[in-house]
Design a protein that fits this description.
Distance between the termini: 28 Å
Mean pLDDT: 98
Number of strands: 13
Bound molecules: ribulose-5-phosphate
Amino acid sequence: MNDQENAKKYAGEASVNFIENGMKIGLGSGSTVYWMIRKLGEYVQKGLDITGIPSSHQTEAWAKQFSIPLTDFTQTQKLDIAIDGADEVDRQWNLIKGGGGALVREKVIAAAADRFIVIVDESKMVTNLGTFPLPVEILPFGWEVTSSRIASLSGKPVIRTNPDHDIVVSDNGNFIVDCDFGAIYDPKTLNHQLKQLTGVVDTGLFIQMADDVIVGYPDRTEIQS
Ligand code: 5RP
């Protein structure tokens, strides 16, 4: 395993220490979350009684692989904790998320949780957001119009495609545009402006939603609360 993967593993596994018996847990998405789910599966095997709501089809598959009991929002509308990765974390703990395309479900889950824990390797900690292009989920209908309205906010949107050049469809049946806004100095205002555009479902900007950030390094973790 390389240093970055080790750092992800440290961060993901450390987050499981925040989980207590009886909790309802929001399960984020991505490769750092994979390590959290794997470790959580070990605790479940030893008798930890929890249920999780997955934020993506991939996470659901991993949760099933590691025998984590799942539930959904028809059964419960409140989560004790949500644990998720991020593509960038700034100094005010604003996030860019959505590199894996699960930003909308991830945001619904984070908003439903009493405590939102972010797990990242050290490379994700930045001074200003924006080096990572901002994912924005948009409706397929009229996506070209929505995309050009995002461009008028100086976002340089690029429709997300797979290696075969097919447009990627999110778990919600929508499209994602990855937008280069340059350095984002006022993420709250940008999030608001984007959400006001008809056709935008949600953005990958998570504005001060995080309660704790667990930063993984190749040989340790640092917990910021
Ligand atoms: C998926 C996400 C992920 O949490 C984000 O892309 C980080 O992924 P990884 O842990 O693989 O670096 O937002 O939509």
